[in-house]
Amino acid sequence: MTGRVLAGPGATVRVSSPGKVNLFLGVGDRREDGYHDLVTVFHAVDLADEVALQPADRLSVRTHGVTEVVPEDGDNLAGAAITLLAQRLGREPAVAVDITKRIPVAGGMAGGSADAAAALVGCAALWGQDVPRAQLAGWAAELGSDVPFALSGGTALGTGRGERLSPVLSRAELSWVLAPAGGGGLSTPAVYTELDRLRAAGDVPRAGEVEPMLAALATGDLAGIAAEMANDLQAAAFSLRPELRRTLRAGLDAGALGGIVSGSGPTIALLCADPDHAARVATDLAGSGTVRTVRTAAGPAPGARVLGGRG
Ligand SMILES: C[C@](O)(CO)[C@H](O)COP(=O)(O)OP(=O)(O)OC[C@H]1O[C@@H](n2ccc(N)nc2=O)[C@H](O)[C@@H]1O
Ligand SMILES: Nc1ncnc2c1ncn2[C@@H]1O[C@H](COP(=O)(O)OP(=O)(O)OP(=O)(O)O)[C@@H](O)[C@H]1O
User: Fold this and answer.
1) What is the domain extent for residue 102?
2) Predicted structure pTM score
3) ipTM for the complex shown
4) Is residue 183 part of a domain?
5) Do both 154 and 186 map to the same domain?
6) Residues in the active site (predicted)?
């Protein structure tokens, strides 16, 4: 159940919600409904957005912290989440939302999904509603394939279009260097479409079985995790954004244990041995001239959760 928060007039509920890296992303063929069946290992990282919610006369959503244009109000995924929750609970979506964005926009790290999950959890708390987690996860899946995972966080196996989750036993603490590539974001549907095009045009290698990755996570075998990282969308992201190859190469040359395009890209995620190693790889990569910004992060991180700051 979500916690019951008795929010008085003017109260603010703050929620932290994580970005993700897909440690493994196997993509099936396009389905009749346009989606692709996935076998993916989601991994939440502590690069998180912070979403503040307050009672108001009407729904409004503002974002800050990024230079990219992000939709406002009901067109923002957080606004869509509040509209859906209000409908299901028979309430007015009268909430003012303020999002501090840290997760790169359209970067393949599910930033919009994180904000949607935060809005669900935060609004339920603001309205003092005990919504069972399973109910919230069902509504999350209506908002987007990545939203249920943003609710759960941690490390999880995703199937279906990514919305069906099962727990993964993981003993690994992972240190990351994340390099959101310059040149703007990539559209998720465009990357899936590019993969379909590449597959129709020729033989594109597919990610193998997920079991070796699950085994490496279970034992906390960092070298095994690095070796088993795979992403079927990577070829499509490279095709749309060829310079990503150089960034990935520069990260590996800087000493990362392994590297991968995160989800639909264009963020490059580089696995490192520990936080100190990540800091050294980040410094080297920043000096390589192949990226605009570099960040470090750690995982697994918890899913969307109320921070309790109110008043
Ligand atoms: C690339 C990933 O981030 C990997 O976790 C996700 O698959 C994307 O999830 P998302 O952004 O939540 O995607 P959705 O909002 O559900 O879908 C957006 C579009 O992405 C494509 N899409 C998404 C998920 C999926 N399993 N197959 C797809 O083909 C479809 O064109 C869909 O219309
Ligand atoms: N709260 C939000 N934060 C960021 N983008 C949003 C938000 N709401 C709507 N959007 C729109 O959704 C698009 C994709 O944003 P998002 O940052 O979620 O991409 P992504 O991380 O690549 O997604 P995914 O990894 O789930 O495919 C943006 O370009 C923007 O137009």
Assistant:
1) 13-168
2) 0.95
3) 0.97
4) yes
5) no
6) 20, 146
Q: What is the mean pLDDT of the chain?
A: 94
Peptide bond into 189 cis (omega under 30): no
| Contact (Cβ atoms closer than 8 angstroms) between residue 93 and residue 61 | no
Cβ within 8 Å of residue 185, ≥6 positions away: 68, 104, 105, 106, 107, 266
β-bridge pairing 295-299 and 174-180: antiparallel
In a domain, residue 5? The reply is no
Ligand 2 atom nearest residue 106's Cα? 19
Q: Is the pLDDT of residue 310 over 70?
A: no
Q: Does the pLDDT of residue 265 top 60, yes or no? A: yes
- Tokens of residue 206, six digits: 């597919």
CA of 171 to the centre of ligand 2 (A): 30
Q: Are residues 235 and 283 in the same domain?
A: yes
- The end-to-end CA distance of the chain, in Å, is 23
Question: Best substitution site from 42, 145, 161 to test ligand 1's pocket, by max atoms within 8 Å of Cβ?
Answer: 145
CB 260 within 8 A of CB 234: yes
The pair of three-digit structure tokens given for residue 245, joined into one six-digit string: 């190859």
Which among 20, 49, 101, 115 is annotated as catalytic? 20
Q: So what's the pLDDT on residue 8? A: 56
- Using the 8-state DSSP alphabet, how is residue 104 labeled? P
How far, in Å, from the CA of 123 to the mean position of ligand 1? 25
Within 10 angstroms of residue 142's Cβ, the number of other Cβ atoms is: 13
Using the 3D structure, point to which of 149, 168, 187 is the last residue of a domain: 168
Share of the chain above pLDDT 70, in %: 95
